[in-house]
Design brief:
Number of helices: 3
Order of helices and strands: EHEHEHE
Structural class: alpha/beta
Number of domains: 1
Number of strands: 4
Oligomer: single chain
CATH superfamily: NAD(P)-binding Rossmann-like Domain
Helix content: 25-40%
Strand order of the largest sheet: 3-2-1-4
Shape: globular
CATH architecture: 3-Layer(aba) Sandwich
CATH topology: Rossmann fold
CATH class: Alpha Beta
Strand content: 15-25%
Length: about 90
């Protein structure tokens, strides 16, 4: 079974909590976030809480070519999208 999962917006509140749970369930996750609405400190906290390795890419999900490359390279079985932008 492929256990690779992509989490966009993974540095946000919901995305980070889901990421920790997925890591605790031994999934290999790739977190993609542009950090506009969050901070890299949240990424460090995901690692310190879960004690697991994962991939983080600072990337905007609107860059569809790079997202497609990630999905193909990692052979992701699932993806969860929590990416959003605050309305000003």
């Amino acid at each position: 079974m492929i256990k690779n999962i992509l989490v966009t917006g993974g540095a946000g509140y919901i995305g980070s909590h889901l990421s920790i749970e997925l890591l605790n369930l031994n999934y290999n996750i790739t977190i993609v976030d542009n950090l506009i609405n969050s901070k890299k400190e949240r990424i460090r906290k995901i690692g310190s809480i879960s004690k697991k390795n994962f991939t983080f890419l600072k990337l905007d999900v609107k860059n569809t070519k790079k997202i497609e490359k990630i999905l193909k390279k990692k052979k992701n079985r699932f993806s969860y999208s929590f990416s959003c932008t605050k309305k000003s």
